[in-house]
User: Fold this.
Amino acid sequence: MKAIVELGRRGAAIGRARAQLANARAGKNADYHLVFESIKTLFSELTPARIDTLKHLRAMGHVSIYQLAKTMHRNYSNVHRDVEKLIEHRLVEKDPDDLVFSPWDSVEIRVDLAQAA
Assistant:
């Protein structure tokens, strides 16, 4: 399964969430859609540092935030804040041992420039 980050109109996220819930109840593996109303919001929530954090997590697998910060040569508190934001957007999860990981096979960011205007 993959996570798809994209732009959409107000209310589009609710429709997508309903469809995802229906697919989950039916036992279907469905892609996860994260919808932002503007390109400004998308890139304020998914900053270059957060995208880099997600990239490292996908490569490292289950890891502590401390180890992730050390590997990335970044300050722990900044990485912790970025990971919490990624968890909030369901791009990262924590396992029972409190290790963080990305549950997605791939993460795509789609921006239709006609919609971004």
User: Anything to note?
Assistant: The first strand starts at residue 2 and ends at 7. The mean pLDDT is 87. The chain has six helices and five strands. Residues 64 and 98 are 7 Å apart (CA to CA).
